[in-house]
Specification:
Elements (H helix, E strand, L loop, with lengths): L1 H34 L12 E5 L4 E7 L2 E6 L3 E2 L2 H13 L4 E3 L16 E6 L7 E8 L5 E6 L6 E5 H5 L5 H4 L12 E8 L2 E7 L5 E5 L3 E2 L2 H12 L5 E4 L15 E7 L9 E10 L5 E6 L5 E5 L28 E6 L2 E9 L2 E6 L3 E3 L1 H12 L5 E3 L15 E7 L2 E7 L3 E3 L2 E8 L4 E6 H12 L12 H7 L1
Antiparallel strand pairs: 1-2, 1-6, 2-3, 3-4, 5-9, 6-7, 7-8, 8-9, 10-11, 10-15, 11-12, 12-13, 14-18, 15-16, 16-17, 17-18, 19-20, 19-24, 20-21, 21-22, 23-28, 24-25, 26-27, 27-28
Helix pairs in contact: 6-7
Length: about 475
Amino acid sequence: MKKNLILLIILILIGVYYFWDTERIEKKEKAEEEAKRVFVHTNENIGQITIDKGTETISAKKEGENWLLTSPLQTAGDKTAWDSIARTLGDAKSQRTIKDVTASLTPYGLDQPAMKVTIADVDGATPETILFGKKTPTGSETYAMLSSATDQVVVVYNYVQTSADKSLLDLRDRTIVSMEPNDVQRIDVQVGPTQYQLSRGTDPEWTLTAPFQARADKTKVDGAINKIRNGRVMKFIDENPTDLAQYGLVEPATRVVFWVGQPGTESQWSSKALLLGVSSETADQVYAKREGQNNVFSVESSILTDLPEDPKTFRLNKITDVKSWDVNHLAIVQAGETIFEASKEEIDWTLIKPMEGKAEYSDISDVVRAITDLEAYDFVAGVTDETPLGLDQPELVFTLTTEDGTNSIALSAPRQKDFVEVRYGVREKPREVYALLIDDASEAVQKALGVKPKEEEPTPSAEEEKSES
């Protein structure tokens, strides 16, 4: 018993020593790592950075979560770039130290340093400056020196220097227009003499509200917003231009205004206007400026392709916004008679007309897609009497049922339009009369009539089952 107690005490002492020693080693390693730190400042308290490359000095100050360039001009800085520099410098560690450097700094390239970087608190207190010289013989490290310790050279990895070795273009905010896509409620576009307006709704999400009322293609509208929002200034041309005419910005070729805010609070919306002028020095760029700001810059000319002169380009050509995968019941009525009907339960389609039976999922899905993918050949404006178009007595009706309700596509009997045979239909929200090529509608009908029930395997007789066993 006494022996076991002694063994237990020994084990406890070993455990205590192990944990004590582990903690001691961890503290020692942490202290050694801290001793390698180049700067006293850490990423969290760096609020000012100055990069001096001899021919150019760039300074920035942190304001809240963002960075403001203070030299050579005052403007917004690139948050990602400055945060990266602060993080790299704040975490910088020396790989080794060369002490008692008194004879000459020339071998290290520090007699004429390639770059100096100064960091400080937000209020400019406790500045620290590091000088960068030549690369070491290995090529992966750089000689450096703190201005407060000129008797010793530290060796740091190259990325400590290259993180700050950026151009003014790299370090200033190159956002063309700052906005959140979901906050854009209206877009006013002027391309030459043409003006049009796009407004966000709920159903449909985007509508052309001027110069005519029509559903807009959400994909195209969102594409235009994101092209500008995600685009970047290619080059800053002139900070204080005296002649905007040379850039085509007096009467700009294109002016787009984004109205930003929340639905139902139009009086509180703010506007962000972008002017686009003539081509710049390179054919793939055009001059641009933000309305209310002085500087002229260039952007990719491809932005203009998403802001066409003809507002009809934004018009939604699909005659229904029903998604094919949401349809669980389909009926086709022609001349008052149901010529096709099918119903879906979970993932199984069942034919009801013109014959009954289980159907291949892909066969019915092809029919549904053929209907939901129908696109208008043309739209008819100013229709006050729909009788001549045959819309008072539709001849062909596609009925698509989803969990949200029933959607009907009612089409007229064949008519001639511009020497083309079409069927007319009406789309609501807003009300639009469209013409559909008769061949497109006929193709959907033929696909439906071509669907046949699946062949079910016959039930084996008792004798057949016996012989198989």
